[in-house]
Amino acid sequence: MKYAVAIVMTLLVACGSKGGGGSPDANPLAGVTSIAVTPADQTLTIASSAPASSTYVATATFADGHSADVTAIATFAIDDPSLGTFGGPLLKTTDSHGGQTQVTATVGTITGATRVTIKLAQSWNDPASTGLPTNPAGLFGGATDAARAPGLVYPNDGVVVPPNLGRLELHFYPGTNNTLFELRFASAVLDVKVYLRCTTPLNNGCVYQPDATLWGWLARSAAGGEPVTWSLRGTDDAGTAVGTSGTAAMRFAPDGLDGGIYYWTTSNGTGVMRYDFGSTTQTAPEKYLGTELTGDTCVGCHALSRDGTKLVAEAGGQNDGRVLLLDVGTKQPKVPFASTAKSNFEAWAPDGNAFVGVYADSGADDYNLMTFDGSTGAKTGTIDVGGSATHPIDHPDWSPTGDRIAFVKVGQAQTLQRMFNGGIATVAQAGGTWGAATDLVPAASGKNRYYPAFSPDGAQVVFDESTCNTGNTGDECDADTDPTATLWSVPVAGGAPVALARANAPGVADGATTALTNSFPKWNPFVGKRDASGGRLAWITFSSTRRYGLRQPPGSGTLLWMAAIDLDAPAGTDPSAAAFALPFQDVSTSNHIAQWTTKIVVVN
Predict the structure, then answer these.
(1) Exposed, middle or buried, 172 (CB in 10 Å: 0-12/13-18/19+)?
(2) Domain boundary assignment for the chain
(3) pLDDT tens digits, 161-206
(4) Fold match between domain 2-117 and domain 126-252
(5) Which sign does the torsion angle of CA 386, 387, 393, 399 carry?
(6) 497 contact partners, CB below 8 Å, separation of at least 6
(7) Gap between the Cα atoms of 583 and 585, Å rounded
(8) Closest by alpha carbon to 228, among 245, 210, 249?
(9) Class at the top of the CATH hierarchy for domain 291-383
(10) Which of the residue ranges 24-28, 150-154, 262-266 would you say has the lowest mean pLDDT?
(11) What's the rounded mean pLDDT across residues 50-59?
(12) 2-117 CATH
């Protein structure tokens, strides 16, 4: 208290007082132009779960150039209160996670700020690794042995993951004669070392999954911040010698991912599976729909309304086209199965009141876009975009802005499931009237372009491109799980397509194989922040035959993958990050067409 009084008296003298014995100035801080907060830009380290602390000082600068310590009358605060709390000028950090934020000091109406980095330094013994030495860290002081260097396998360098993913396997080759490993996560806010065994050996390597405690440290500390590098050192239980791996980086997005995902499993019992990304309790997908509502006929290509209340699916595959229109909440058909006009592929209007479909197989009489009532399934009209029996329309997708539909103009017809030499086009609506079709990515010789999908802001379209090595036809380019399929993006306003090179890229275990069947791209419906500095981030899912690290996909089937997309990437540049496999899927089944909704509707 005496210190505070002294400070105030100093300020009174500095600022002057009224003459003739009158009362002091009403505002003794008049003339303050800025406040400096020190220590500036410091790093505080949480060591072994012990919170760090620091005393801050606020210094005011006045218009006449002089300065004064105003700590005693300043109010201190931290922008992210999960990282620490102030008691007067003393900051005490959390003990649970690191991060970067600002410290502010306010006097009157003037505020000053400085950045603070809080680093979590922690050693952790993997709970799944039994028989660890008493002091495993002490065994890593031996001589360097290059033969012992572990090899990083998965995930790819540069992967971006949502912080609520909850689990991300790390795959590695152990190196020669190693029985003990030190896994390190490092960044400005993290220095975490995990000691582990090769608890899950697989295909000459090891699979490690962070436990919930470790995931919390990583995700909470690094969400929205700079990349976290991970690396491994390996030795034996005698500490004979040490090998060190290279490094790879991962980044945690600022925001958790919400939405429901419905995907098609085509082996070990076909059906539509679903998983709630926003759930805090679901750990495995549930089988939502089999063949029970379609007379034991396989349910294949499906589409969900944005709000998750309605599902439309085609049953029976090629040359069938019977439609199931389902109320998701009751799991009952809205109309009897196969009672409406046929369709092979569908997409919903954003309000869920209508969907668009296409049918060009046996018995077809309308080769254009067809619109359907979202409640009755009745065909309500045709959007003529130039389709014909020889060049039908395929793969529609309705923009989330509601005013545009993307589709494929088939160059060489077989069935809509298997077609060739496609090009991407759009049709726009104004005043309730659909206009003329506009080519977005025209057909090209030796290529097949198909499966367009609008980004959640409606500004770009991701699509597949396959290469036909024998002209314009061949099994490798018929739009049906093509080995040569790669993902591309193009602005809806037009421009040159850009390959999603990082999302398309093979992993370490794929070697030189680049034909990875990157098919069926679909977008999560939400847009989040790209990083702490701003920008927008969205997510795509797709299926691929690539190796899931050390895991082989099932037979000749595919697994589901996800990649972050920077919606504000400079024009003409790759907006994608490296992809990761969805960790909740059954890796013994072949999984495709991951459709998204804003939420999972619970069956009544």
Answers:
(1) buried
(2) 2-117, 126-252, 291-383
(3) 999 999 999 999 999 999 999 999 999 999 999 999 999 999 999 9
(4) yes
(5) positive
(6) 441, 463, 465, 488, 489, 490
(7) 6
(8) 249
(9) mainly beta
(10) 24-28
(11) 97
(12) 2.60.40
- pLDDT (0 to 100) of residue 26: 45
**pLDDT score at 257:** 95
Task: Please give the structure tokens belonging to residue 195.
Answer: 């000691």
CB atoms within 10 A of CB 489: 23
Q: Which residues contact 20 (CB under 8 A, 6 or more apart)?
A: none
585 contacts 591 by C-beta, under 8 angstroms: yes
Query: In angstroms, what CA-CA distances link 139 with 130, 177, 193, 238, 390?
Result: 17, 14, 13, 7, 71
Tokens of 62: 């006045």
Dihedral (Cα; 18, 21, 23, 24), 10-degree rounding: 50
Provide the percentage of residues in the chain whose pLDDT is more than 90: 88
pLDDT number for residue 532: 86
* Residues facing residue 425 across a β-bridge: 407, 439
Gyration radius of the chain's alpha carbons: 30
CATH topology of domain 126-252: Immunoglobulin-like (2.60.40)
User: pLDDT at residue 46 above 80?
Assistant: yes
Contact criterion met (CB below 8 Å) for 292 and 259: no
The pair of structure tokens assigned to 261 is 């995902």
- Residue 583 · residue 165 · CB < 8 Å: yes
Token pair, residue 93, equals 């950090």
Question: Cα–Cα distance between 165 and 156 in angstroms, integer?
Answer: 16
Burial class (CB in 10 A: 0-12, 13-18, 19+), 373: middle
Residues constituting the chain: 604
Burial (CB < 10 A; 0-12, 13-18, 19+), residue 356, is: buried
What is the C-alpha to C-alpha distance for residues 515 and 504, in angstroms, rounded to an integer? 9
In the 8-state DSSP scheme, what is residue 552? P
- Residue 365's contacts (CB-CB under 8 Å, 6 or more residues apart) are none
How far is it, in rounded angstroms, from Cα 380 to Cα 355? Answer: 10
